[in-house]
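Quick one:
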Amino acid sequence: MDIVTQLLRIIFNSLQTGSIYALAALGIVLIFRTSRTTNFAQGSIGTLNAYVAAMAMASLGWNIWAVALLSIITAFFTGVIIDKFILRPVAKVSPISKQIITLGLIMVIVGIIPFIFGVETYRLPRFIAAGRYDILGATLRLNTIFTVGLSLALMGFIFWFIQYTKWGLAIRVTASDEATSRLMGVPTKTVTTMSWAVAAILGTLAALIVAPQANAAPSTSMSTSMSAMRPRPTSTAMYRSRSRTCMKSTSSSRPIPSFSKSIPTCLAPTGTLKCTKATSTI
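Output:
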């Protein structure tokens, strides 16, 4: 095998694998910033909804696009239910206790999957089954291009949403200081719930991409979730170096939108920094 061909194969496989990890990690970071907890059950939540897609395909005969849409809808409600009925009642416990709860969620989900869907192994097809390009002897599938493009598009959209929309501002201030944000009228509970719902959707998409390679099994997305949470030396050092969270105004006397009619709008003068203490930041 030619060295260039082998190198290209590694690059193509790494692009697809990295895209899967990016989707899973994005959901984990989103939950951590708004709920102050590490969601160890991210992979299990994705696997549960991948089973919904696989069961719908096997019993109803739907194509991969239809069952993917169905699993995204069920993932949304899964995230809402977990936040509202499991984590919100214990919102005042320590972060470590919340992490233990998410570990318990893994056991619950892995336990109910065989109870609901049986012990059979399901297989999901790729989103784009046919089509490939041969580049210097290495094969680049259209499904790989789709996976990378989907990941980049979702990351770009979420970045735009968080930076340039009113609800994105709500996410940022909630991540900075939840108590102060609540006093300013920000609906922090809704922000947290939506973060869990979006994270569940991202985990489900990662599971649907992994499933054609590993089949739909209770451990389908477990290794993906663990790899997505693996710390990197550079990012860890950066996290430790930041002890304060600062918000700087982007324009002269630009008003920060108020999320409550009873709370007045706050003004941030040009060039000033408004800093709040934070116990942990990313």
